[in-house]
Design goal:
This protein is an alpha/beta fold. The protein contains 12 helices and 11 strands.
Length: 341
């Protein structure tokens, strides 16, 4: 029976993408892995399909982008910057949107593969999951045999290239700002425990509260919520119903922040006089209300540039760091004030 690239990867204990990079003489493979793979190739006298290799050498000058939900201004802002950078570099983007239904990503990924895009970028959705879907990881590994994949989260079981936000620094910036303004009773509302970035924020939040010897109040941190306006609204209403209010609220994103603002307003209270509010993402939503919301910005132009440049360098078989981080910054507006007294 003819040996395949999958057989070589299994025997070598590496991914099919690593075998593919050895076959194409790419630089981004360690010497030890390269020797193991080359020995197995020689052992079986493996010859890759010449026609497939020739087809793979033809560039379409197109990069596929699979995003969780383009209606979310975070994803929209990042995609725009990716498109701007891709156009500067002579590439076009092919967008697939999963409408926040992660199961759709299997079909979208297959369609991108059929389009013979030169690289794939995965933004949100499956790569945001705390527990990686091994079936999806296997699908991505199949794509990576011929096509490099860059992601904005993590995907265990693959060796995708990652460009991620420094979530710990993001929550640190928010908490430092609130603590410097005298806030000791702080809530963190919105988000879901199945999402890696939310779990990281919640863990860091609890660590910081306890490190400063402040009271950690379970009801001040959402358990199972979400990222929509209704989620922020319902979570803030929950605090009002409980009768124990924080002096400051951290919204998991700008969508949730809008819902929190609505709840506070309906309860005849104001921001920041009665409750201070900070958020993540710094999308256009954060600065369109009567009170501008202090929010964490992710430098979308730089974020998009790093994603596209990484994809293009991989297309050109050039070295790319396995993991890169985008450094957040805090944009201060009117929604947060000092605690008086």
């Amino acid at each position: 029976m003819a040996i395949t690239i999958y057989d070589i990867a299994k025997e070598a204990g590496v991914s099919t993408a690593t075998v593919s990079r050895v076959l194409t003489n790419a630089n981004n493979v360690s010497d030890s892995k390269r020797r193991i793979v080359e020995d197995i190739i020689q052992k079986y006298n493996y010859k890759p399909n010449v026609m497939a290799r020739r087809l793979n050498d033809k560039k379409t000058m197109t990069i596929g982008v699979l995003t969780a939900d383009i209606r979310n201004p975070f994803y929209a802002s990042l995609f725009i910057e990716c498109e701007r950078r891709a156009n500067e570099k002579g590439y076009s983007l092919l967008l697939f949107n999963s409408l926040n239904i992660n199961s759709l990503e299997f079909g979208h990924l297959e369609k991108l593969n059929e389009q013979h895009v030169d690289a794939v970028i995965l933004i949100g959705g499956k790569v945001d999951e705390l527990l990686s879907d091994m079936k999806f990881a296997s699908k991505v590994n199949d794509v990576m045999v011929k096509t490099p994949v860059v992601i904005t989260g993590k995907l265990d079981g693959t060796d995708c290239y990652q460009v991620n936000i420094d979530q710990q620094q993001a929550i640190d910036l928010v908490l430092n700002h609130l603590l410097e303004n005298g806030h000791k009773r702080i809530a963190l509302l919105g988000g879901n425990s199945s999402v890696q970035s939310t779990v990281e924020k919640r863990l860091r939040f609890k660590q910081t509260i306890l490190r400063y010897e402040l009271e950690y109040i379970d009801s001040f941190v959402s358990n199972e919520s979400g990222y929509q306006m209704t989620d922020g609204y319902e979570e803030m209403n929950r605090l009002f119903e409980g009768g124990d209010l924080p002096s400051a609220v951290i919204a998991i994103n700008d969508f949730a922040a809008v819902g929190i603002v609505k709840s506070i307003t309906e309860h005849k209270m104001s921001i920041p006089k009665d409750v201070s509010l900070v958020s993540f993402d710094n999308t256009f939503i954060s600065d369109m209300g009567l009170v501008g919301i202090t929010s964490i910005d992710y430098d979308y132009p730089e974020f998009g540039k790093v994603l596209i440049d990484s994809a293009i360098r991989l297309i050109e078989n050039k070295d790319v760091p396995r993991k890169q981080h985008i450094l957040p910054k805090l944009l201060i507006r009117e929604s947060c004030s000092k605690v008086l007294g």
